[in-house]
What we know:
This protein has helices at 14-25, 42-46, 69-79, 90-105, 108-113, 129-145, and strands at residues 3-7, 30-34, 57-59, 65-67.
Amino acid sequence: MTYDLYIGDRAFSSWSLRGWLMMENFNLxxxxxxxxxxxxxxxxxxxxxxxxxxxxxxxxxxxxxxxxTLAMAETLxxxxxxxxxxxTDPDAxxxxxWLCAEMAAGxxxxxxxxxxxxxxxxxxxQANAAVRADLTRIxxxxxxxxxx
Length: 148
């Protein structure tokens, strides 16, 4: 049972990196398909996976298409219980799901000011108040998670 994972460049797409890390970390059998995220071919590359339009997107072995990292995580956890993708403690699991959802959908100021790129070092960056607020929120969430 091998999954097909469609992603963009992992050095510049945190969403793609998340999908890939999930497959790698839990040793799930998969094939990687690179999508032209920045080359202008993304729409054509994803056309066979309609209605998917963003990366990452996964095609299950039975052909079902699943987009969005959190939906992929839930699907993979259901189909691969031996991988133990979610915590067994219900409170810790609920907290993990909450934090994953906020990490995936939140922090727009931080994302705008600090787009994902792992190849270069930015010198002299000064975080504005909104970015600092996002960073404080992340610290608050991780401190909360440490209780579990």
